[in-house]
Inverse folding.
């Protein structure tokens, strides 16, 4: 592992047994990210290799970079990245799923960065065959890489809530990546969706399909009760407002929490913790998300794309907040 001279490209390392990765050897701020020379992986039994063309940035990436992530299975270098898109270029023995793209086909993948191979910020990644699916037709690599982690998180949240068509779901943080997918997938599941938004995001959230848009803020429960006096059946708490959302929910309702819920629940309201890595190999669900994109029911939102070497700048922008859509690194 070494930092290359400025301007070193994928092509200069291709075929040498090494590849570029973007990662850290010491935890820290965005400036800790550097271009690294690491061994090139190859697909083993039950695995596929992706020539990565784009990787999306998420909070999980910044937590790994700054050392917040505690479940790392190996020492440095640490390579972030949970979402990738590119082209399949190796398929290991024993892979026979019809949902695995063929060699040369565009694909998207969800990646666990905590294992010894690291995450998606690399020229090549090797993942279980169940972690990849065909990229949506017509989507660029940058667009396709925004779908796996947030899309599967939203799908898992809805699966855990188990709501029936016609029931009411409220979504906080609806303008964000997870929240936006919750709105769109909730509508695709036949739910009535109430979503929050700041004034600048009202049009966006309405365009995503929310039936009713309410002002975001600490009074979210009161705002939702104004339009759903009986209380909603569940809240997908993308804004991580914890106990502030409970007043919006009917007795015996539910909260889908993307972070550990802080505070005490009430009125027999159930908390459903959503950890996306439980869906790491839910290939059929990832494939269905791609089909919903093709059908125009799910929107891929890229805020800005950066060359991989500009990862520090991209992380600084991401941590500044206020981004609508995903920031993407291109390889």
């Amino acid at each position: 592992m070494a930092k290359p001279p400025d301007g070193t490209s994928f092509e200069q390392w291709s075929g040498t047994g090494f590849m570029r990765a973007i990662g850290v050897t010491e935890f820290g701020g965005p400036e800790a990210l550097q271009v690294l020379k690491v061994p090139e992986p190859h697909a083993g039994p039950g695995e596929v290799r992706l020539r990565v063309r784009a990787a999306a940035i998420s909070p999980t990436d910044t937590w790994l970079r700054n050392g917040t992530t505690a479940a790392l299975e190996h020492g440095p270098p640490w390579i972030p990245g949970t979402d990738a898109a590119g082209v399949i270029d190796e398929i290991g023995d024993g892979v026979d799923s019809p949902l695995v793209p063929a060699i040369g086909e565009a694909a998207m993948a969800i990646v666990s960065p905590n294992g010894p191979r690291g995450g998606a910020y690399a020229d090549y990644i090797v993942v279980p065959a169940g972690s990849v699916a065909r990229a949506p037709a017509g989507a660029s690599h940058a667009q396709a890489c925004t779908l796996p982690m947030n899309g599967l998180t939203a799908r898992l949240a809805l699966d855990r809530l188990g709501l029936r068509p016609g029931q009411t779901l409220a979504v906080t943080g609806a303008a964000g990546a997870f929240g936006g997918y919750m709105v769109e997938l909730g509508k695709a599941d036949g739910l009535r969706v109430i979503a929050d938004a700041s004034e600048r995001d009202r049009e966006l959230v309405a365009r995503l399909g929310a039936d009713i848009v309410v002002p975001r803020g600490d009074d979210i429960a009161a705002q939702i009760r104004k339009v759903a006096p009986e209380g909603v059946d569940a809240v997908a708490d993308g804004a991580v407002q914890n106990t502030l959302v409970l007043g919006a929910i009917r007795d015996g309702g539910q909260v889908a929490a993307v972070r550990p819920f802080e505070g005490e629940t009430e009125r027999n309201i159930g908390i459903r913790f959503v950890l996306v890595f439980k869906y790491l190999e839910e290939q059929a669900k990832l494939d269905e998300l791609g089909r919903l994109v093709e059908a125009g029911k799910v929107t891929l939102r890229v805020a800005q794309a950066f060359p991989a070497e500009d990862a520090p700048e991209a992380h600084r922008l991401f941590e500044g907040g206020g981004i609508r859509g995903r920031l993407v690194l291109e390889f």
Observations:
- The domain at 10-147+300-330 is CATH 3.90.180.10 (Quinone Oxidoreductase; Chain A, domain 1).
- The chain has two domains: 10-147+300-330, 150-276.
- The longest helix spans residues 148-161.
